[in-house]
Design goal:
Blueprint: E1 9-12, E2 17-22, E3 28-29, H1 33-39, E4 44-48, H2 55-69, E5 74-79, H3 81-92, E6 97-103, H4 113-121, H5 126-140, H6 148-162, E7 175-176, H7 178-193, H8 196-203, E8 208-213, H9 221-227, E9 235-239, H10 253-265
């Protein structure tokens, strides 16, 4: 059951809403709809849509959404940028978060950030590789205007580099917001450089589980190595024959949802 949409949030299943699915991008509102729909078959699930154009703004927005709509403490299922955002929200408002399940998390330390770009570029050739280089440079450059058309093309190219054996593009439910993507991403990169992500991770006291595709261009070492120094315990599950988005992967989709349900049932 999908309940009537409300501003900046979607609800699936029946109350109480005990899980919240946090999208990536930044700016990829609606990205978690397929996962939310699946989880809504067995529990109440929220899909918050982030609209703030700063990192702190998105943290505060998410906390407000959870206070208003979720039965807290809630389990946050964060994907990509949403994994970072979930981590930051749990650090700021620990009483609201029971557990973190982080999917396709990017490197938490600047030391490993270059590997993601390198992995993506080596999976493309010719014009696609040159175009991706230009678009990633423009996304990172504060002086460059990043249009919706450029953002859509970047997503198309990244779909190629980040998938192993995809079933579909998963793009129909996404209302991508290029302005939010550029502003929040540039600030998020700075937070990583300043080690704010790791300081937030050190404050998290709830259980944390990472689900990570073996073919994900974001290096697993960028999670495991930095966290070893700041987090006493966490669970890391590697998904083989899987890219960045497990739920679109032909060979692992069913196993991914089985693992996700299992993790949601655990304390």
């Amino acid at each position: 059951m999908i309940m009537k949409p409300q501003p900046n949030i979607r609800k699936y299943g029946k109350p109480p809403f005990t899980a919240a699915l946090i999208h990536g991008g930044p700016g990829a509102a609606g990205e978690m709809a397929p996962v939310s729909q699946q989880l809504g078959k067995t529990r109440g699930a929220l899909e918050p849509l982030q609209t703030a154009d700063s990192v702190q703004g998105q943290i505060d927005e998410l906390i407000s959404q959870l206070k208003r709509h979720a039965r807290t403490p809630v389990t946050l299922v964060g994907f990509s940028w949403g994994a970072w955002l979930s981590l930051l929200a749990a650090a700021k408002a620990p009483s609201l978060v029971e557990k973190l399940i982080l999917i396709g998390c990017g490197p938490l330390s600047e030391e490993y950030s270059g590997s993601t770009r390198e992995n993506r570029l080596k999976r493309l050739q010719g014009a696609d590789r040159r175009e991706l280089t230009v678009l990633m440079g423009e996304l990172d450059d504060p002086a460059k205007i990043f249009s919706t058309e450029k953002a859509d093309r970047l997503r198309q190219l990244i779909q190629k580099t980040d998938s192993f054996d995809p079933l579909c593009s998963n793009g129909n439910s996404i209302a991508f917001q290029a302005d939010i993507a550029k502003r929040v991403w540039q600030e998020a990169r700075l937070w990583r450089q300043q080690e704010k992500l790791l300081r937030a991770a050190a404050k998290v006291r709830c259980p944390v589980t990472f689900l990570h595709g073996q073919h994900d261009p974001h290096p697993a070492e960028g999670i495991l190595m930095p966290l070893a120094d700041v987090m006493n315990a966490f669970t890391f599950i590697m998904l083989h024959e899987c890219g960045h988005k497990p739920w679109i992967e032909r060979r692992v989709r069913d196993r991914f949802f089985h693992i996700l349900e299992d993790q949601l049932m655990k304390n």
